[in-house]
Amino acid sequence: MVTTRIIDDLLELLDSLPMTEQRMFVGLDGYVDRIQKVVQSQGVSENQYFDTMPELAQRIGQAAGKSAQLELVNQTVKAGGNAPIMSHALGRLGVANVCLGSFGEKNIHPVFQTMSNNCELLSLGKPAETNALEFDDGKLILSEVSAFSRLDWNFVQQQYPVEQLTQILNPCQMVALVDWCNLPLATDVWQGLLKDVIPQLGDDIQRQYFFDLADPGKKSVAEIRKVTGVISRYEAYGAVTLGLNENEAYRLYHTLIGKTEGQRVNLEAICQRLFDYLNISCLLVHPLDRTIVANREGVQTLAGHLVKKPVISTGGGDNLNAGFCFARLAGCTDSLAAVLGMATSGAYVQNGHSPNLTELQEYLRQWRDS
What we know:
Elements lengths: L3 H12 L7 E5 L3 E12 L4 E3 L3 H10 L9 E9 L1 H11 L3 E6 L17 E5 L4 E8 L2 E7 L8 H7 L2 H8 L4 E5 L7 H12 L10 E5 L8 H13 L5 E6 L1 H11 L10 H12 L3 E4 L4 E6 L2 E6 L12 H14 L4 H18 L5 H13 L1
Parallel strand pairs: 1-5, 1-9, 2-7, 5-6, 9-10, 10-11, 11-12
Antiparallel strand pairs: 2-3, 2-4, 7-8, 12-13, 13-14
Helix pairs in contact: 1-12, 3-10, 6-7, 8-9, 10-11, 11-12
């Protein structure tokens, strides 16, 4: 559980924490996100929207063998992708960072120009596009990602040679690589960085590494086994954390360890088994209502503070990752960092934007007082 003392400790930390010397590297995607709702019925003054995914699924099912039109209404158009959202959230918390991704062919696309001034953007080409249909019980993300098809290690080096990448990463205390599932050649890039760049970095900084696979459901068993092997090898150069949501944790468990026939395995047990298998420093798994931390001290479950009526949900996990990394840079334990990650995510979905330090403190007070 999360106690009042834990929240008070985090509030005290945020009151006294200068982050001016902290720096991160984040990569490797970039989307133009259209956050949308699906119209259920039109009213005289306002539309009624589908509140839940099963309601929409029923409408779609009724159209089978016929046809149907679904009206989408934009709620906002914003910078999207695991890397830019995480980068912006870090910037809002005061962490200077370099974000390498797809932000525009010649010029930075206008949606990315609204990101925090603490974010330095290095573009690899045009962004992908996403239609994120949001509901009270989740979101349906429809993405066109052909822009990522050329992003292998050779292409990245052509845009930013190894010597330049080494200079970029050298002052960074943490490196975050995310959205593996939507970049078809991401494993090649992560291997290239591990082979050609990471060993060249100075040893005066005790670096940390953070990975997020996004949804690996469309990847083969061989691909998943290969990328988790690459992630484990980063541990030779610093503490590695792998972040997963609940579905991703089950997928990795079934892929790497196998189903337990005739026996139901709870999520905490799955986290322990995955942590033992992966040979990393920390496994961070975040269902909607809690976060589970597995590290060398064992497995700890930390209850969250659920936002009942989110203003936005797309990007909640990326904000959680940002809050976790922010706290780890500040020297927090994995468990404290997980709580600050949940608070960062909660403030984001409650307010509709990534929180600054003041807004994060206010959300923590609301959580404590509730």
